[in-house]
Design goal:
Blueprint lengths: L2 E2 L10 E5 L4 E5 L8 H8 L26
Bound molecules: zinc ion.
The site of zinc ion has 8 residues, from loops.
Length: about 70
């Protein structure tokens, strides 16, 4: 599980990567906000989504999405 502390653009809470069936998405633990794919991309790149709080580098980075074999 990947976390980005204090990175929620809405409430400044902690974001977590959630494993769904087809892909993972990122949501806020505190307010439940789900990031858009664009915001998630920025986040995973190690940049800030919106707030002026430094985001610690995630322990595991996933560059791009793995497409399921068609
Ligand atoms: Zn939030």
């Amino acid at each position: 599980m990947t976390f980005w502390l204090k990175s929620c653009p809405k409430c400044g809470g902690d974001l977590e990567a959630v494993d769904a069936l087809l892909e993972t998405y990122v949501r806020c633990v505190q307010c439940g906000l789900e990031l858009t794919q664009v915001q998630e991309k920025v986040l995973r790149r190690g940049s800030r989504v919106h707030v002026a709080v430094p985001v610690p580098a995630p322990a595991v980075t996933h560059e791009g999405r793995h497409q399921p074999a068609a």
